[in-house]
Amino acid sequence: MEHCFYQSCKVCILIIGEMAYDTTFVNEARTLCDTLHVTVLPHEIPQMVREKRVDLIFGSLSASNEALYVPMLQEVKRAFPLIKMLLFLQSEELRLLDDILALRCDRYLSMKKERLNALFHLKASIETFTHDIYLAERHYFQTLLDFSIVSQTDVEGNITYVNDNFLKVTGYKAEELLGRNHRMIKHANTPSSVFEEMWQTITQGRVWRGQIVNRNKDGSDFWAETMIIPFKEKESQKILQYLSIRHDLTPFLEKERLSNEIKQKALEQEHLSEAKDAFLVLFTHELKTPLNAILNFAQYLHKHMPNIDEVPREKRLYLLEQIYKSASSMLDNVTNILDLGKLRHDKLHYNLTLFHPKEAILDVIEKHNALALEHKKRIVFKHDGQDAYLTSDEYRFKQILSNILSNAIKYGTSIVEIFLLVTKESIEIVIQDDGKGIKDKKEVFELYNKSSAAQSSREKKGTGIGLHFVKLLCEGLNFEYVLEDSLSLGGTRFTLRKRLKEWKNG
To answer: Rounded to 5, what percent of the chain is helix, strand, coil?
Structure first.
C-alpha cells in the first residue's frame, strides 16, 4: 500500500561560528528550512537549543574560537544526545580537536573547497535529517496499521486495499472485497443518517470518527471505533482516496456486557435480599394479627368452658367465626406464598376446565362479603346479560379475582364495582374502587413492591405479593391485564381480559 501519512518535516537550524557572520549564506540558508536561528555568542547556544527546539547545529570553528564553542557544544550534546551537528573545522592545528571529535558530529569538513560548498552540505544535511524522520514516521505508522483493521477506498467508496487484520475480522478473502463497494459490510441496524453524516464530513475533506457496527461474512456483528481519513492532492486539494482505520470493540463490548450482567445480578440479589427482609416484616405482621385473634378468642372460650352456658350464644358464635376467619386468612397467605414459589419456578400445574365466569365471580364476591362488611364497603356487580363459558383453571381464575377484589375492598373508600362484559371474541372483567389510586402502576406488580404514593395505613394492609401473584397467574393462563385510573370512581381500575375459544348464548 502506498504510504499516505507522511508530511514534510519542519526542521529548525541554528547557525553558529564564523558562518553566522556571512549574511549571504544565512539568507540562502533560510530558503532551505522552516526555521533558522543565528548566534555568534557561544554561551547562548544551550539556551537557544532548549527554547527553540533546534534539530541541527551548523557552523564553523577555528583555532581562535574553539575554546569558547566546544564547552557549550559539549553541554548541548549531554542534554540532547540525538541532536545533529555539522561543523566546518577551519584549521588543521586545532588544539581541541580530540574534544571536537568526541562530539560525534555527523560530518567534519576542513578543506577550503568544502567550506565554499557549505550551502550544498547544509541542504544535504537537511535532506538526510528529514529522510530519517520520514523513515521513523513510516515505521511508526506502519506499526499502527499492522495493529489496526485497515481498508482503503476510492472516492466512490470502492475498496482498493484491505490489510490482513481486516480479512481476519470480517472473514472475507481479499478477492471478495477488492473492487466491491464498502457498503457490502454495512449492517442493517445502522441508521442511514449515520452514513449520510459520515459522507458529508469526508467529502468536505475532514476526518470522520465514530463507533459503528459492521456485518461480517458469517452475519455476525463487528463493532469498531472507526476513523476515516480523506487524502488530497497537494496542489489541487482534490480528494484522491479514503483510508479507514478501525479498532475492534467487539471483545471489549462483550466483556462490558458480561460485567454489566454480573453487576445487574448482584444488584438484583441485593434488592431481592432487601425485599425479602421487608417481606418478612410485613408477612409476620400479617400472621401476627390473625394469630393473636385466634389465641385470644380461643383462650377466652377455654377459660369459660366450665361455665360456657353463661357466655351468650351470639358471642360464642362470633368468637368461633373470628377464629375461623383468622385461620382462613393465615391459610390463604401461606397458600399464596407456596403457589408463588411454584409459579416463579414454573412448577405450578393448571387444571383446565370449562366453567361459567359469572358464577365464579359471584362465588368470589360471596366469600368477600365479610371483608367488605368489616371495611364498610359496598360491592356492586353488573353484567351485560350475555352468557359465556370459559376454558381455564377455575380455581386459579378465582385466585386472580380474589386478590384484585380484596385490594379494592381494602384500599377503596366506600364502593367497589365489578363489571362482566362478554362479546363473541372475549370476556372482560373490570374491578374498580373509589380509593386514592396507585401511582407506580408498573412497579406495583413486582415482588414485595407497593405504590410509592401509598399512605402508611395502606402499606400495612398486605404482604406485597398479591399483584405479583396476579401477574404470574395471568401470564400463565394467557389473561391480558391492565391497571389504570378509574375515570368514573377516581380510584383504581383493573381490567382482566381473556380471548374466547368457545362462546354460547344464554
So the answer is: 50, 20, 30
CA angle 440, 443, 446 (to 5 degrees): 150
**For residue 258, what is its C-alpha cell?**
458480561
Whole-angstrom CA distances from 358 to 120, 124, 135, 297, 365 are 109, 104, 89, 37, 11
Give the separation between CA 273 and CA 256, rounded to whole angstroms: 25
Give dist(CA 209, CA 49) in Å, integer: 38
CA distance 329 to 347: 24
Tally the residues of the chain: 506
Residues 311, 330: Cα–Cα separation, whole Å: 27
CB 327 within 8 A of CB 291: no
Mean pLDDT of 75-100: 79
pTM over 0.85: no
According to the CATH classification, is domain 254-343 in 1.10.287? yes
How is domain 349-499 classified at the architecture level of CATH?
2-Layer Sandwich (3.30)
Please give the Cα distance from 492 to 472 (Å, whole number).
Answer: 20
**147-248, CATH topology level:** Beta-Lactamase (3.30.450)
Work out whether strand 426-433 and strand 415-422 pair parallel, antiparallel, or are unpaired: antiparallel
**CA-to-CA distance for 472 and 481, rounded, in angstroms?**
11
The CA-atom distances, in angstroms, between 52 and each of 94, 124, 201, 252, 359 are: 30, 22, 36, 43, 98
Evaluate if residue 281 carries a pLDDT over 90.
no
Residues 329-355 pLDDT 10s: 777 767 766 666 665 566 667 889 999
- CB atoms under 10 Å from CB of 50, counted, come to 12
Burial class (CB in 10 A: 0-12, 13-18, 19+), 366: exposed
Task: Give φ, ψ of 392 to 5 degrees.
Answer: -170, -170
Asked if pLDDT for residue 216 goes beyond 60, the answer is yes
Indicate the pLDDT class of residue 8, thresholds 50, 70 and 90: very low
Q: Does the CA dihedral 381-383-385-389 come out positive or negative?
A: negative
CB 104 within 8 A of CB 52: no
CB atoms inside a 10 Å sphere around CB 331: 11
Q: Where are the beta strands (DSSP E) in 67-220?
A: 84-89, 107-109, 149-153, 159-162, 208-215
CATH number 3.40.50.2300 is the correct assignment for the domain at 12-144: yes
DSSP for 384-445, please give it.
Answer: -S----EEE-HHHHHHHHHHHHHHHHHH-SSEEEEEEEE-SSEEEEEEEE-S---S-TTGGG
